[in-house]
Specification:
23 helices; alpha+beta; 8-stranded mixed β-sheet; about 45% helix; disordered C terminus; about 10% strand
Length: about 575
């Protein structure tokens, strides 16, 4: 049953099956067999029905062969060799159930499953039930699923709506309804005679023979679980535990609601819930179904409401995860990402946040350093970070003086500083603070930045000398504010001059107050000249350097001093030309 669907369509039988049915009409006397199809149709049919080994899932056969060490399944001398596809499907199912490793070796779970006298999917449910402390309930459910439905009339013979169960989820599961049937049957069985028990089954539309078979299978499974050391739970099993156990053996039987009350299962299987189910009139988003039956349509007679998180936890080895949008969370002070989780074509989680370091520690560390340490996106007060922030602000002010952003320090340099010092596993503020507590003073001091990390001490001193924070104006030290915002009114250097000092202020006081800007101002003056005049100042940088050589504050306003120096240099060049021309100008 590779499609996991029990099919009941009308199909042609083989010639051997037709002849076997023909033989029944002449057992006591000569009979007449009339077939309602043509002789050509009969002759075109296969001679014999395919053996069951070619028609059924081989997971149980493969598991038993591996447990008995009968050798390679592919090379085993079967009387009728199964198709390779069927063998591969069997191996695939066992891997889904965690019974085999990817190298097709038995796992501990697989060895336990092989000892239980039940289908591997059912055995997987029992092993999971032991883990979730609901083995008592699952023994009842699995033993029922292993036989033909004991209900002679579809629909529960007991009114679950009137059930005295304390669990409100009882009405959300056909599987747990069988626990109700079992408990009431058992309580009646131990108190009354066999004839009264038969009468009880008849009144409640239960098959007495199948109920007895149910008890026999249950007894075998109880003994099998005891041999494995499993103990039945004394407390009631939880709804979540029971259905997680069912999911463990039914990973391909999860479905989500689509149009109306139709459900979409794995690999695009669509079906409806039978009217006999407790969930027939419900519209739960996610369900786990029992075996599907295909007639004119596809139905499931048993189903239960489940949560998508249960499926993800039980199918962690099979789900496909799509991770997207890794980001720094200011609120949680950690690196998070979103994930989409799907299984067999069904998407269970659309956008769930999780810690990115769980799957990518280097990537999480990179985002942590960039946002928390470089961009200071943290709420916690961390001493070295506060110190480094103040230093960076100071260096950025120096860059504003130079009117060259990122000249001294940039994000790449800051990132590199931390990357060399922060260990690989540090991806959040919490992990950072925990790590800091373990450092000695020398190690902790290495996280404190200094100007020497980004520029030489001599360079820093030269910057401070030509771009002072205060300017000497008329024997007064006035504060200088620097700003690099081209186009803004406050762009450049601004000196705040008291009103009382304005009458004494001279143009030369302002022109020479900031030595570092003198060269740039001269270059700007030349670039502002008409083109015909600007030609005489090429190259500008060298001409400005020559013009400023030997002049200072004592020579008066900058424009006047530069003009006088240029005129004097121009006259000197003309005199030299007059002498070379023999006195003729």
């Amino acid at each position: 049953m590779l499609t996991k669907i029990q099919r009941l369509p009308i199909e042609p039988i083989s010639q051997a099956s037709a002849d076997q049915r023909k033989g029944r009409c002449g057992r006591l006397a000569n009979g007449l067999c009339i077939r309602i199809y043509s002789e050509d149709d009969f002759n075109s049919r296969p001679s014999f029905t395919d053996p069951e080994i070619r028609r059924t899932n081989l997971a149980a056969v493969i598991l038993r062969m591996l447990a008995l060490r009968l050798g390679d399944v592919d090379n085993f001398p079967f009387l009728e060799s199964p198709e390779d596809k069927a063998v591969n499907e069997g191996f695939k199912l066992l891997m889904e159930l965690k019974a085999l490793t990817p190298k097709r070796k038995l796992t501990t779970v697989g060895k336990q499953m092989a000892t239980l006298p039940v289908d591997p999917k059912m055995a997987c449910m029992l092993i999971a039930a032991h883990k979730f402390s609901c083995l008592k309930e699952m023994l009842i459910i699995v033993s029922m699923l292993s036989i033909q439905d004991p209900r002679e009339t579809l629909g529960s013979p007991f009114n679950i709506a009137d059930s005295d169960s304390r669990d409100p989820n009882t009405k959300n599961s056909d599987f747990t309804s069988f626990v109700e049937i079992w408990n009431k049957y058992e309580s009646f069985r131990v108190s009354y005679s066999q004839s009264q028990l038969r009468k009880f089954c008849k009144e409640n539309h239960l098959s007495f023979v199948r109920m007895r078979e149910w008890r026999e299978v249950h007894k075998q499974l109880v003994l099998g679980c005891r041999n494995l050391g499993f103990k039945e739970n004394k407390e009631l099993g939880s709804y979540a535990g029971i259905h997680k156990s069912i999911i463990a053996g039914s990973l391909n039987q999860i479905a989500t609601i689509r149009d109306g009350r139709q459900y979409l299962g794995s690999r695009n299987k669509r079906f409806n819930i039978s009217r006999s189910s407790l969930l027939a009139k419900s519209s739960h988003k996610w369900i786990v179904s029992g075996e599907l039956i295909e007639t004119s349509q596809t139905f499931c007679s048993m189903a239960a409401k489940v949560e998508p998180e249960w499926v993800v936890s039980m199918a962690s080895h099979l789900v496909k995860r799509e991770v997207f949008e890794p980001h720094w969370s200011k609120k949680k002070e950690d690196v998070y990402a979103y994930e989409q989780i799907s299984l067999h074509g069904l998407r269970f989680i659309h956008k769930r946040a999780f810690r990115f370091s769980e799957i990518d520690i280097p990537g999480a560390r990179t985002l942590f350093i960039q946002h928390a340490l470089v961009n200071f996106e943290v709420k916690a007060s961390i001493p070295f970070l506060e110190h480094n922030k103040n230093l960076i602000v100071s260096l950025e002010k120096t860059e504003e003086k130079l009117r060259r952003p990122n000249f001294i320090i940039n994000e790449r340099d800051i990132f590199s500083f931390y990357e060399k010092r922060i260990p690989l596993g540090i991806c959040s503020v919490k992990s950072l603070t925990d790590w800091l507590r373990e450092l000695d003073d020398t190690q902790a001091q290495s996280l404190y930045m200094s100007g020497s990390n980004f520029m030489a001490e001599e360079t820093e001193k030269s910057f401070l000398s030509v771009f002072p924070d205060t300017a000497r104006v008329q024997n007064n030290n006035l504060a200088v504010n620097y700003s690099f915002e081209p186009g803004a009114d406050h762009d450049g250097a601004t000196i705040e001059v008291p009103i009382s000092l304005l009458p004494q202020l001279k143009q030369s006081d302002l022109d020479w107050a900031i030595p570092g800007l003198v060269t740039e101002r001269c270059q700007s003056l030349i670039r502002g000249l008409p083109k015909i005049l600007r030609k005489g100042f090429v190259p500008i940088n060298r001409v400005v350097e020559e013009l400023l050589e030997g002049i200072s504050y004592k020579d008066g306003p900058l424009l006047q001093a530069v003009s006088y120096t240029h005129l004097r240099a121009h006259e000197t060049r003309e005199d030299r030309g007059w002498r070379r021309g023999g006195g003729k100008k």
